[in-house]
Amino acid sequence: WVAAASLCGEPAQALKYLESAASRFPESAIVQAAFIEAKRALPQADEATLAAIANLRQADPTSSLADHYDAYFRFKEGDVAGAVQAVAAASEKDRFADHRLELLMSRYQCLRENGCSDGGALALSAFSLGFEHLPMLREVSQQALEQAQAAYATGQLEPALSTADSVARIGRNLSASGRFLVYDRVGIQLQEEALLAKRGFYDTAGNAY
Question: What pTM value is reported for the model?
Answer without folding.
Answer: 0.85
